[in-house]
Design a protein that fits this description.
Layout lengths: L1 H7 L2 H4 L1 H22 L4 H22 L4 H12 L1
Helix pairs in contact: 3-4, 4-5
Length: 80
């Protein structure tokens, strides 16, 4: 749903939405990975890892102009 909204949104063409999503993706990757490194509990480690993986999905959404659905689909299939 998020990919479709991003593709048809007029705000995506201006670049402002892309910049916001890029900042969110970078913050998600950094905080998710750094907090996962400090965990001793396996459930929390997996939780922070999933936060980081959401950032990777956002990078695929922002970076690929025409093939976002394919890139995200391949990533999710390999992640599962």
């Amino acid at each position: 749903v998020m990919v479709r909204l991003f593709q048809i949104s007029p705000a995506a063409n201006t670049g402002v939405l892309s910049n916001v999503l890029t900042v969110i993706a970078i913050a998600s990757i950094l905080f998710g990975n750094l907090l996962a490194l400090t965990q001793n509990n396996l459930k929390r480690l997996l939780g922070y890892s999933s936060i980081a993986h959401f950032g990777y999905l956002l990078i695929a959404l922002v970076a690929s102009k025409g093939m976002a659905m394919e890139a995200i689909g391949v990533y999710l299939v390999t992640y599962v």
